[in-house]
Amino acid sequence: MENHIFGMHPLMEAIQSGKLPEKVLIQKGLKGDNYQKLFSLIREKKIPFQMVPVEKLNRVTRKNHQGIIAQMPSIEYVKLEDILPGIFESGETPLLVLLDGITDVRNLGAIARSAECAGADAIIIPEKGSASVSADAIKASAGALNRIPVCKETHILQSIAFIQECGIRVIACDSKGESNLYNEDLSVPVAVIMGSEDKGVSPAARQVADKVVEIPMKGKTGSLNVSVATGIVLFEALRQRDLS
């Protein structure tokens, strides 16, 4: 339960100090000035919340929760604009991973493991419609999520635009790409977009990407698991960079 905050005042203090929860469970029927102040703050910061019966809160903890339980991030997220300058200043060629709707925490963990092993600089995930870094995700990553920066951004399309403005080529990997992955130059600064497990890269992300590539396959199975596909792309980038 170390990733939870219980009670109104502790949660309000956390939010005001910049520590935003992943989600807040609120007991149905809560009233009072303190609750109204907290609820206004939750709405102002656009923090996801859910109204639940008190029985659900009691199943989470036996502590005096005051009708409020907040799930806090398992790691400290970083801002994309804060880490990119450091990557360039270090003399490294940026290699970023953008996750467009990955909802399975095990896939998130496996992707992070491959990304860290391949030397990727950061993983970018959207605030909504994506798995968050949880204890299960960290376990699936073999601890890699504690070693690679994770950026949780409001809008994935704005993140793509910012990355492109920084001179980084954005490549979407999809089962219906316009070119073969192995024909792409991945030795340059690159950000790779990997799509959701069932729908792939979203049409909006495909449209703004500089290129949409596919991994050539010989079998009859329609697609690869997204974590496996991410590993293939990242280690192809590593291979090209080691040879360049």
Q: Can you put this structure into words, describing what you see?
A:
It is a single chain. The chain folds into two domains: 4-71, Ribosomal protein L30/S12 (60s Ribosomal Protein L30, Chain: A), CATH 3.30.1330; 80-243, SPOUT methyltransferase, trefoil knot domain (Alpha/beta knot), CATH 3.40.1280.10. It contains nine helices and eleven strands. The protein has helices at 8-16, 33-44, 54-60, 80-89, 105-117, 135-140, 156-165, 203-208, 226-243; strands at residues 4-6, 23-27, 49-52, 68-71, 95-100, 122-126, 150-153, 169-173, 179-180, 190-195, 211-214. Strands 7-6-5-10-8-11-9 form a seven-stranded parallel sheet, sandwiched between helices. A four-stranded mixed sheet has the order 1-4-2-3. The radius of gyration is 20 Å and the shape is elongated.
- Content-based structural category: alpha/beta
CATH architecture of the largest domain: 3-Layer(aba) Sandwich
CATH topology of the largest domain: Alpha/beta knot
Shape: elongated
**What is the helical fraction, as a range of percent?**
25-40%
Kindly report the average pLDDT value. 92
Major beta sheet summary: 7 strands, parallel
Number of discrete helical segments:
9
Give the name of the CATH superfamily of the largest domain: SPOUT methyltransferase, trefoil knot domain
How many strand segments?
A: 11
CATH class of the largest domain: Alpha Beta
